[in-house]
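Q: Second attempt. The first request was missing the SMILES, so the protein and adenosine-5'-triphosphate are both included now.
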Amino acid sequence: MITVEHLTKHYGRVAAVDDISFEVPKGEILGFLGPNGAGKTTTMRILTGFMPPTGGVATVAGYDIFKQSLEARRHIGYLPETVPLYPEMTPRSYLHFVGKIRGMDSNLRRARISDVAEKCKIEDMLDRHIGKLSKGYRQRVGLAQALLGNPDVLILDEPTVGLDPRQIIETRQVIRDLGGEHTVILSTHILPEVSMTCERVVIINRGKVAAIDTPANLQRRMRGTDEVEVEVRGPSEAVRAALESIPDVVSVNERDNGAETCIFEVGCSVGMDVRESIARTIVQRGWGLRELRPTAVSLEEIFVQLVTAEPGT
Amino acid sequence: MIRNVLAVAEREVKSYFASPVAWVVTAFFIAIWGFLFAAILSGSREANIRPLLSNFSVTFLFLAPLLTMRLIAEEARSGTLEVLLTQPLREVELVLGKYLGSVAFLVFMLVMSLYFPTILLIFGNPDKGPLYGGYLGVLLQGMSFLAIGLLASSLTQNQIISVAVTFVALLLFWLSDAFSRLLSGPVAQVAQYVSITKRFEDMPQGVIDTKDLVFFLTVIIGCLFITTQIVAARRWR
Ligand SMILES: Nc1ncnc2c1ncn2[C@@H]1O[C@H](COP(=O)(O)OP(=O)(O)OP(=O)(O)O)[C@@H](O)[C@H]1O
Ligand SMILES: [Mg+2]
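A: Got both inputs this time. The predicted holo structure:
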């Protein structure tokens, strides 16, 4: 649905986006994750046809975003980062205006407006002045605007910024429901948001793609190892030696927990499940196995590691 | 195409009327016109529309920048331009819609000003020719001013700069007749040619010269064309 090939954007001499390539199949929800100034907004502005790239190609719904811009834009709904709106208009008249530009007749507009107003929970605000709405409601009006034309592709720049916690959950649900039928790209700084809403993540740093994968795979890939936590009652030196002798175990770290038991973080090669051999080893020696569970690396850690990695590593 | 232009124009007209500035401007100019009307009438004591209309055209120097300052500058500042330019909307549709919206507001003001000639028609017997010609002239002149203002508004995100640029540009057009007397050779001819005052002089006499018509249309179309190019070029920044 969306293909991006070697996209580059220079502002003067600053490369805001530097040779980014990725693809988004139809129906997928893709997350853009990156620190401030990474180039998320810039990439989205190129994809929506707001500005041309310095180099590279991007297509949306089969249309070249630059050469067949108008056609491509018909298939895109866009929520800009700053959520620009007209303060003197009401959400209803604003949505009618956008609907007219998108070529919707008045019946269709009315139907779609009540539909998106319900989705975005702005029914009660439809006839107030936008300038008098709170930040969160303006954000929702912006989202309603993006959804109005029922576009194949939705590009949402930080869609949950400024919402209250309950509304954040509801908005994520709205976005998840869009998946399947709609293709969605959303950007965020919030890591849990990505693992909660997105099927795949593109991590961007300084204009370059640092990683593209599913949240689960990223977690695994990061360390090159899977990790298991074991709580054992027994002589710690002997237990450590026994654990280290198990094939596929890469590392063993002891965490003192002050009691008669000790906790070990056991790292093993990717894809190898060592839990059964650990259990067998410990039980055979007559030690007490209190707990055995796999631990996942949080995306947060990945994010920190990826974006702080030195170039070339 | 037309549908999009009208959608943009309609939104623009509504936002004119939603703003108190528009009402203040309207009230202000109606008051000024009323004052001019009374002064001219009590001075000349004849039912002649001509002096009134040529005074109108002076006030347009101040009116036009106020009507156009916001048009594109404000959309660029607030970021709504980003929404518009990512909709299936061509730059030319946006520019034409904006222009049409401002022309509609000008027409509204001119309709309000019909109050004055109506008084003349009731109490006197002015020539109809100069009336029609005069109003057409005022309208064409106003439309050229708005086109120039729209162009200025596309150059900046700042409404004050937009007003200043428009005002200076209009003033130059206005004064070019006077300049042409100081200058000589081809420069003087150009100055003479672009003088809007000069063009305007004949119209209230009921004479509409095709050359004048062509001149105004050229200014309007030229400005709209350049504005479209500027809006498109903004994307490259
Ligand atoms: N209009 C502009 N002119 C010049 N430089 C710009 C412009 N817009 C963005 N940049 C630069 O491009 C880089 C990428 O910016 P971008 O807005 O895409 O980052 P982002 O990932 O969206 O950041 P954030 O998380 O803060 O929204 C930054 O270094 C920024 O300073
Ligand atoms: Mg951003």
